[in-house]
Amino acid sequence: MPLIDTAGPVAEANRDLMFIALGLMAVVVIPVFILTALVLLRYRAGHEHGKYRPEWNFSGWLEALIWGIPALIIVALGVFLWNGTHRLDPYSPLPASSPPLEVQVIGLDWKWLFLYPEQQIASVDRLVFPADRPIALSLTTDANMMSFFIPRLGSQIYAMAGMETKLHLAADGNGTFLGRNTQFNGIGFSRQHFDAMAVGEDDFAAFVDKAKAREPLSSARYRQLALPSVLEEPEIYGGYPGDHFRQVMMKYKNEVPTPDRPDENALSTEDDIGSVDGSGHPAFSVEEEAPVDRGDGPITVSGPQKGRKIEPDVEEASE
């Protein structure tokens, strides 16, 4: 089970928190089942040792036992969970000797786009990071609300259009871990998963070099990715406009630009496609597409097999 077979400090702390909470609750639940069986056995019909006391209606020590112990457990559980959950705040950076790898995540129907600001590369449905460095994720969506979760690495967090949420994770060592969207968002929900790959520093550098040799993410390709579709294979891009994450967020905000900062909330237009951002790559538009039918028809596979139809698979992908 991914929640028990952990592969990172955050997931391990979450698992321990869950087990301790279950243990405290078992202090109440287990005696109830045991005493229920004993009462049925002792006071069954025809048993000679069960005393019949029709006038009895109160016992101070029994009331204290029934109410006192659960109350103490609830208080202890509340204090423990309060401290534990605040210690595991997803917004708090993880202690580490190396600075975290910054990754911006954009949820699309039905795929995940990962942007690496420092390396100026991008990938779809594949998150690669050094195993000896934590990762600092900033998340939003260019579609419905989604839930980002890598069970073996740590906490789940929601991502919403027009908002930014943060998540800090780390891995204990090299490995490939399943990540997925756990918030239902349409017919392709069961296929919206990705590989989170913790690799050595040399392998990560090789991944970056390989990505930089690829074509940058173009305006036309992003508009295709933003449409409801699934990918058969992950994709890697050698660049993207550095301000793209913020532009996707601001696309859903209804704020009016201020006179001193007229472009604060402005989005790129088709006239901006030929411009160049700080990364040296062409900037591109994040215009809204026409409404797309989200019925129960087949899903379009984009990428190398663009245009081919596949029938929906309603079964959950195995962990």
From TrEMBL:
Where it sits in the cell: the answer is:
Cell membrane
Name the domain of life.
Bacteria
One biological process term from GO is: ATP synthesis coupled electron transport
Residue ranges annotated for the Cytochrome oxidase subunit II copper A binding domain, each copy included: 98-210
Keywords carried by this UniProt record:
Cell membrane, Electron transport, Membrane, Oxidoreductase, Respiratory chain, Signal, Transmembrane, Transmembrane helix, Transport
Write out the GO cellular component annotations.
plasma membrane
CDD domains reported in the protein's UniProt record: CuRO_UO_II
GO MF annotation list: copper ion binding; cytochrome-c oxidase activity; oxidoreductase activity
Task: List the SUPFAM superfamilies hit by this protein, alphabetically.
Answer: Cupredoxins, Cytochrome c oxidase subunit II-like, transmembrane region
Record's compositionally biased regions (Basic and acidic residues) = 255-264
In what way does this protein cross or attach to the membrane? Multi-pass membrane protein
Q: Where are the transmembrane segments?
A: 17-41, 61-82
Instruction: Give start and end of each Cytochrome oxidase subunit II transmembrane region profile domain.
Output: 1-92
Q: What is its main location?
A: membrane
What are the boundaries of the region Disordered? 255-319
Q: Which family does the record assign?
A: Belongs to the cytochrome c oxidase subunit 2 family.
Record-given protein name? Cytochrome ubiquinol oxidase subunit II
- Species of origin reads Notoacmeibacter ruber
